[in-house]
């Protein structure tokens, strides 16, 4: 089934432009395969002004959004899938729509090196039966690490 996200984003974009508002999209800057100026991302998110006056060649297809825009006076190509969009909103009043974060595509994860398990280093300084070790281990949850 085709996602409704690109359709909703396009509809919200047109509604904002028709009302003479400035549409912005909030994009997951860590989404695999996106082309955004990472130096402008904050906490893994980048907000992009996609108003007709701010971009050149805006193309919002079902599988890829792209355009050219200037960042600190330098023109850059921007591209991302609709799944990377976390929200679309109008700058003037915040009207818009948030979207849930999408899981990263399986093929991107599978193309990276396969994860493997590794042993956790043991301090070996204290006996396993000490009260401090038990209280520390009770508070700390076990984790797995991906080794590349």
Question: Which descriptors apply to this entry?
Answer:
three-stranded antiparallel sheet; 148 residues; 3 helices; four-stranded antiparallel sheet; 7 strands; alpha+beta; 27% strand
Please tell me about this protein's structure:
By secondary structure, the chain is α+β, with helices and mostly antiparallel strands. It has helices at about 5-20, 105-110, 130-140, and strands at about 25-30, 45-50, 55-60, 65-70, 75-80, 85-90, 95-100. The two termini are about 35 Å apart.
The description of the largest β-sheet is: 4 strands, antiparallel
How far the N terminus sits from the C terminus, by CA atoms, comes to 34 Å
Helical run tally: 3
What does the average pLDDT come to?
84
Order of helices and strands: HEEEEEEEHH
Q: Could you give the count of β-strands?
A: 7
Work out the strand percent. Answer: 25-35%
Structural class given helices, strands, pairing?
A: alpha+beta
> Which ranges are low-confidence, i.e. pLDDT below 50, for 5 or more consecutive residues?
126-137
State the shape.
globular
Strand line-up in the sheet with most strands:
2-1-6-7
Radius of gyration, in Å, reads 22 Å
Helix content: 10-25%
Q: SSE layout and pairings?
A:
Blueprint: H1 5-18, E1 23-28, E2 45-49, E3 55-60, E4 65-71, E5 74-80, E6 85-90, E7 96-98, H2 106-111, H3 131-139
Antiparallel strand pairs: 1-2, 1-6, 3-4, 4-5, 6-7
Question: What's this model, at a glance?
Answer:
With 148 residues, this protein is α+β, with helices and mostly antiparallel strands.
């Amino acid at each position: 089934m085709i996602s409704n996200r690109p359709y909703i984003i396009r509809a919200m974009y047109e509604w904002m432009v028709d009302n003479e508002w400035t549409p912005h999209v909030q994009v997951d800057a860590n989404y695999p395969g996106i082309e955004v100026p990472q130096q402008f991302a904050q906490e893994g998110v980048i907000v992009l002004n996609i108003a007709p006056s701010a971009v050149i060649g805006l193309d919002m297809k079902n599988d890829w959004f792209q355009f050219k825009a200037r960042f600190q006076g330098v023109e850059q190509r921007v591209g991302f899938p609709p799944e990377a969009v976390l929200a679309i909103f109008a700058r003037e009043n915040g009207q818009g729509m948030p979207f849930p974060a999408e899981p990263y595509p399986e093929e991107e994860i599978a193309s990276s090196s396969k994860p493997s398990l590794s042993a956790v280093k043991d301090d070996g300084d204290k006996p396993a039966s000490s009260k401090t070790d038990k209280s520390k281990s009770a508070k700390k949850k076990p984790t797995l690490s991906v080794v590349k």
